[in-house]
Amino acid sequence: MNNNNSDMLFSDVYNNVLPFRDLILNISKVAKVIHQQGWAEANAGNISIRISDMLKPFIQQIGWYNSYPCQEWFLVSRTGSRFRNFSAEPENNLMLIGIDTEEHYFPEDAKPTSEWLCHRKLHNLNKNTNLSCILHTHPTEVIALSNTSFFQNCKKNSQRLNHCFSDALPEIKLFLPKGIAVADYAPPGSSKLAAVSYKSIKDKQALIWEKHGLLVLTESPDKALDLTEVINKAAKLWLIKGLEN
């Protein structure tokens, strides 16, 4: 496939695949809320969504499958993208990644979020599930909590964190019956962060990165925002409770 086709694919899919266009609109709405909450300052935060079932029929229809027989397709935020710009400029903040024996970027010169290695590892872990959306944000109270000695103790026993969160906000068990995982600190965007995330998350749908933020795995951007809101509310309530004691 030549570079012109690479540059055109995102806009072609957007213009011709209605579910993809609806997904972009949904991501834009969610990104706006996240930015308004202060959970994606500057170019913080990232998202990736597995869209193979949505995209492969279109790739075959336009005759590009023989050139790029990708079995997996992802919609991914670009490096340096800003959540506040998703609505006005989705094509400049998001990109497509096709994977066969290697990765192919659309547009070809676009670069995925620095956390893409971590996203890809977790997508591989959940490839046979309906958990197709991974969202990373910087919820204020979650990060504040992850800087406390309480969190340090919870790293050794995540059940303590989950007990305290459910004590502060009982509804959290309805959203996250398997609880929340925690991970040791690792530099953002590093292979170490990807490795500790893969090791720590297990069968859970949420992971707190020490001093960095929150990562959730769900079926859609809306549900990802649901989990982010609920977890941050629990963290906020627990911090308030601690101040009162």
Descriptive notes:
This protein is α+β, with helices and mostly antiparallel strands. It folds into two domains: 1-113, Class II aldolase/adducin N-terminal domain (L-fuculose-1-phosphate Aldolase); 115-245, 3-Layer(aba) Sandwich (L-fuculose-1-phosphate Aldolase), CATH 3.40.225. It has eleven helices and eight strands. It has helices spanning 3-16, 18-36, 52-61, 90-93, 116-125, 140-145, 149-156, 158-168, 172-175, 191-201, 221-244; strands spanning 46-50, 72-77, 94-99, 103-106, 133-137, 181-183, 206-209, 213-218. Strands 4-3-2-1-5-8-7-6 form an eight-stranded mixed beta sheet, sandwiched between helices. α5 runs parallel beside α10, α7 (149-156) crosses α8 and α8 packs across α11. It is elongated, with a radius of gyration of 18 Å. The termini are far apart.
